[in-house]
Structures are given as structure tokens and as C-alpha cells.
Amino acid sequence: MSQLYKWQFRDNFQNDREKIIQLLISEIVFLNHCLNKAKKRKERKIIKKTCRKLEKLLITQQGQIEVRLSGEDYNLVISIIIQAFNKIVNKLS
Question: Are 34 and 54 in contact (CB under 8 A)?
């Protein structure tokens, strides 16, 4: 029965690091999709660079999956992701 509760309230039991990992994976998939659609060499270079940065962050987070993520670290990782996308937008516009 306890497993049923965990499935029902997965967000309450889910580690913040797992949420970060899922977010990073989805953002990397999105960037790869954008990379496939990009036609200009400059665009592809910028997207590849950001994708590599997020992949490194993903590998780091996966290596520390068992360690609970503090609130400050969670906010730091989120801000890194946001800054990466802001750089893409600024460089491409």
C-alpha cells in the first residue's frame, strides 16, 4: 500500500535532484531538436556549446543522485539553466 501512495504523490517523495535531472534531460532533448533545425553555422555552434554545458551539469547531478540537494544548490542549478538559455537568446537575436 505504501508504494501506491508513493506513486500517487510522487512529487512529494521525489528528490529535488531527480527533478533537476529530468529537467536537464528535457532541456538537452529540446536543444538537440533545435540543433537539427538550425541552418546557420553560428546558430549550431551556440546551441552545441550550451548543450555541452548542460550535459556536463547533467553528468554531475547524476553522479550525486543519492545526495539530497539543498535549497540553495537547487536554486543555483536552476539559475545556471536559465542563464544558459538567456545567453542563447541574446546571441541569436
Answer: no
Euclidean distance between CA atoms 25 and 29, whole angstroms: 6
> Is the whole model's pTM more than 0.85, yes or no?
no
- Return the closest-CA partner of residue 74 out of 87, 61, 88: 61
Smallest CA-to-CA distance from 20 within 87, 88, 68 is with 68
b/e map of 53-85 (b: 16 or more CB within 10 Å)?
A: bbeebbeebeeeeeeebeeebeeebeeebeebe
Residue corresponding to grid cell 535532484: 17
Task: Give the C-alpha distances (Å, rounded to integers) separating 79 from 40, 41, 84.
Answer: 28, 27, 8
**In angstroms, rounded to a whole number, what is the distance separating the alpha carbons of residues 15 and 7?**
14
SS (H, E, C) 40-65: CHHHHHHHHHHHHHHHHHHHHHHHCC
Per-residue pLDDT at 29 exceeds 50: yes
